Amino acid sequence: MRGRADDGWWGVVIDAPEPVALATFYARVLGWQVVGDDPDHAVVAAPSGVAYLAVQRNADYVAPVWPPEPGRQQMMLHLDVEVVELDEAVADAVRLGARVADQQPQASVRVLLDPAGHPFCLYRDG
Fold first, then answer.
1. Phi, psi at residue 48, to the nearest 5°?
2. N or C: which end of the chain has fewer CB within 10 A?
3. Residue limits of the VOC domain (predicted)?
4. Is the bond preceding residue 67 a cis peptide, omega within 30 degrees?
């Protein structure tokens, strides 16, 4: 089976209790655009037009914990976002509603929690 990533859209879908609010958050963090904002399913599109982040409503959503703890909801995936100025990017994300996680793995990476509790990383390469 051949995928369509080379000539079509590809993306990631995450669950949250409020899809439009979380999609708006990520649109602002990433500098992308909300292109679909149904109350149960919202989509944020990359400027390139080939990648997206979608958020679907899950009334039973349970936020994962970071760092992982036995017996608690585990993170299934996380987003990595490369930034030029790490401290500035972290401050912007916090202003938009993110929280800085208590545990940080390395000097050039900051783990944050989005408004729904999903961990995501801002990092500076090199």
1. -65, -20
2. N
3. 8-125
4. yes
Closest CA to 81 of 11, 5, 15, 26: 26
Give the neighbor-by-neighbor strand order of the sheet with 119-123. Answer: 79-82, 119-123, 109-113, 99-100
In 1-72, where does DSSP find H-type helix? 19-30
Non-local CB neighbours of 16 within 8 Å, separated by 6+ positions: 22, 55, 56, 57, 58, 61, 116, 118
Angle at 12 between CA 74 and CA 100, to 5 degrees: 50
Write the single-letter amino acid at 2. R
Element (H, E) at 55: strand 51-57
